[in-house]
Every structure is written in structure tokens, then in C-alpha cells.
Amino acid sequence: MARLIVVSNRVPDPKERGARAGGLAVALADALPRGSLWFGWSGRRAAATAATATLAEADGITYATIDLGETDYRRFYVGFANGALWPLLHFRLGLMSFLREDYEGYRAVNRGFAAALAPLLRPDDLIWVHDYHLIPLGQELRRLGVANRIGFFLHVPFVPPAILQVLPRAGDLLAALCACDVVGFHTDRYRDAFLDCCAEWLGARPDRQGRFDHAGRNVQAVVTPVGIDAEDFAQLAMRAVRGVEARRLKDSLVGRALAIGVDRLDYSKGLLNRIEAFARLLATHPEHRRRVSLLQVAARSREEVDDYQRLRRELDRVVGDTNGRFSEFDWAPVRYVTRPIRRRTLAGFYRLARLGVVTPLRDGMNLVAKEFVAAQNPADPGVLILSRFAGAADAMAAALVVNPFDAEEVAEAMDAALTMGLPERQERHQALRTEVWSGTAAAFCASFLQALRLPGGGAA
Ligand code: GDG
């Protein structure tokens, strides 16, 4: 078996496993084969970006990390990746800011990553690059003479040409991505948008398998949706619901229903719209007052980016307004937690919840939707409300699928969920469960790697 090299912006600290919020780390940690090497940023900042990686071993995986210099960190990570690409790929053009020096910094860090990774490679390694921070990495590796198979998976949505054209240098980035052999997406829609962009900028003429030639290479665009280790998470939830934290939460509810939201504190997750929809529920359906509490876990994220600080202030205000408006001396509608919670504890909280509220304005996939389903008790399951703009909605039609921009529609879905009878809850849960148990993290890795291993074959 060829060795697998995974490259992602952040490499998790193996000692912190399960402590940090973030979908990519969760999906990969669940599925990496022993013997793999995981390369990327350590999460630490230094005076200058390290030229060589520091190696560490844990559980049969080698972690190779480099520290980032302050200027590179600001231009690459804060500036271009999270100030330009993230908003663009989530359809938030008004939040996108582009500076040439940030773009140059982004390209420079990708060059530096390639230079630090190349000496660690063996000729038959399979290289799997992850996410929008590292779009040009494949091209930089090729420039250093790396001839290995290289795959790239995008964890966020891909946008149609009318949106991508707003980004200066979009054509260069697309061409750079096409130095990879396989480019993977969560859904057909993202892959089709990518192929449309390649047709428009690069003149690509893809076949029905998403294959086309560019600059003397053959590239294949595949759809391989991310999932979770569902059985493992279900077991975790079953144990955790009997633990101290879940019992404390249950006691504090004194028989009221629990609605739960779990997200990084990010404007793509629709947190403001969600709180407003919950306020709408309480205003238009007063029978739910005192009968339900929304626990919103919003783990702080990317606090160095101004838009994230603004969102946090705005969320503080909207939660305060809602609680001020509806609270009574012994009940508050919204419980709002910005400290990260341990994964195991979260699993128990999901299982206690009658309602899972997953309403991003845009989301590549959204693993919380899958975790919520996996954690439920099939005999008495909670109901999932899911945004149609999450990639997860493509295969989870048995959820209550909503448009998160329509507060009334979301409030009505909350009412429907809170009043839904057991047979309908069970029927919907069974359908969702089948989906979550088949689309696991292991299945994701296997289908992407199958495409990467087999020139001319693989997933479509
Ligand atoms: C990107 C894409 C795609 C959240 N708060 C806490 C916590 N979390 C965990 C959740 C879940 C993960 O973080 C979040 O995953 P998502 O998929 O919802 O979102 P992103 O971080 O934006 O991930 C996304 C994903 O990549 C994979 O491809 O699905 O669309 O944006 O696992 O449970 N975990 C802990 N404490 C928290 O407070 N321990």
C-alpha cells in the first residue's frame, strides 16, 4: 500500500484530540490509516516561517509541522484565505477584501509548504491536499519536480463563474488547482460549478466523468461527500448522556424541551438568523414559552479577523435582546456558550435534545447535522432542522429542510418539530440514520483515495 501524505493548513495537536472545533480535523482524524504522514501549520506563530518541518509521532501517524512567521500569517491566513477566499466561497461578496500583498503572501506560503514537504516525500506516496488555504500547493510541488499522484479536496462550497469572477487572480488559482490529478467536492453542485469555471477560464471540455486535459495533464473532478464515524459517535453519545455534564443539563431543564445548535462562531453558520427565528417562534407561538430552551454552542473562531469580532458583538446583542424580551425569573429562552465544549460532552447534549437546529447560510457539508442524527436514541429521536444551503441537505431530505433567510419558515419548522408525534419522528430519523451510517468518514476517504490511486478510474 502506498503511504498517504495528508496536507492541511492546520495539523491538529494529537494531545488535543477532540478538544477543538472544526470539521476538517474531525473528518480526517476519524479515518487516517496508520503509517500516514500529516503535514501543515503547527498553529504557532514565530518571527519567520520555518523552512523545515518538525516531526512528531503519535498513534502510528507522523505529524510534520511548521510554524508561520507573523507577516505570512497575516497575509496568507487572515488576509487572503479568510478575508478573501472564505467569504467568496460562501457567497458573501460584500465581506470579501482583496489585497495584492495578501495574495502574494498566500502564494509564498504555499511555495514554502511545498519546499518543506518535498524532501519528506517518497516516489510512490499518494499526496492528499485539503481545503482552500492550499489551492496552489499542487502546482508548487510540480514546480519542484514532484511527479506523485496529487489529490485536492475542497471542504467548502465551490461557486459558479458569476461569483468566482469577482476574485482577482481567479484564473491563476484555477490553473494552479489543475496541477492536481483529482479534485474532490462534497456535492454535484460544487463539482459542476468548478467544471463550469474551468470551461470559462481554461477552455476545459470535461467528459461525463468530470475528466479534462489542461496544460498537458489529465484532471478529474469527483464528488466524495465527507461524513463522520457514525457508530463511534453513537456509542459516545450513549455513554455521555449518563455522564455528569449531561445529567446537569437535564436537571437544569426541569422537563422542558432542549433545542441545540453547535457551530464555530462564523458568519456562514447563520447564527443571527437562527436566534431571530427562535424569537419569532416564541412571539408567534406563545405556547412554547417556558417549554423550550435553545442551547447555542458557538465556539470562538478566527478572532483575528474583524468580521468575526463584529459578528460576536452582534450575536451578544441579539441573544441579549431575545432573552430580555422573553425571559422570566426562572426561565431564559437562549443559553449561549462561546467556550468550546469537549466532543464527548457535546455528544451527550445532542442526545438529550428534542430539536437540532443546523441553519447555515452556506456550508460545504456540515458535520453537526450528521453528529446530531448519530447521537439520537432511535426509540425517541429528536428532529433535525437543516438549511437547504448546507451540502448535507442534498442527502438528508428526511430532515425539516428550510431556507435560513426566512425566519417565519424556520420558526414554523421549529413548531412542527416540537409538536411532532413519535411515529413521524422515528420514520424521519430512520431515513437519516441510514444515510449517516452509509456516508461515513471512512467511506469518504476510501472513495477519494480510490479515485486518486487509479489513473483513469475511481469515483464519479
Ligand atoms: C468545514 C466546512 C464541512 C463545534 N463546536 C465545538 C465542536 N464543534 C465541532 C462540531 C463538528 C465540527 O466542529 C464543525 O464541523 P462543520 O462541518 O459543522 O463545520 P466547519 O468547521 O466549518 O468545517 C464544513 C467540514 O469542513 C468537513 O468537510 O462539513 O462545511 O465548513 O464536528 O461538533 N467540537 C468541540 N467543541 C465545540 O465547542 N469539541
Notes on the structure:
By secondary structure, this protein is an alpha/beta fold. The protein has 2 domains: 4-227 and 441-453, Glycogen Phosphorylase B (Rossmann fold, 3-Layer(aba) Sandwich), CATH 3.40.50; 230-438, Glycogen Phosphorylase B (Rossmann fold, 3-Layer(aba) Sandwich), CATH 3.40.50.2000. It is built from 16 helices and 15 strands. GDP-alpha-D-glucose (GDG) is lined by residues 18-19, 21-24, 26-27, 155-156, 226, 262, 264, 297, 299, 340-343, 346, 363-368, 371. Residues 18-19, 21-24, 26-27, 155-156, 226, 262, 264, 297, 299, 340-343, 346, 363-368, 371 line the site of GDP-alpha-D-glucose (GDG).
| CATH topology tier name of the largest domain | Rossmann fold
The biggest beta sheet reads: 9 strands, mixed
Oligomeric state, counting identical vs distinct chains: single chain
Tally of strands: 15
**What is the CATH class designation of the largest domain?**
Alpha Beta
Q: How would you sum up the global shape?
A: globular
Question: What percentage of amino acids are in beta strands?
Answer: 15-25%
Strand arrangement across the biggest beta sheet: 3-4-2-1-5-6-7-9-8
Bound ligand species: GDP-alpha-D-glucose
Rg value: 22 Å
* Shape-level CATH architecture of the largest domain: 3-Layer(aba) Sandwich
Mean pLDDT: 94
Poorly predicted runs: none
What's the number of domains? 2
Kindly report how far apart the N and C termini lie: 23 Å
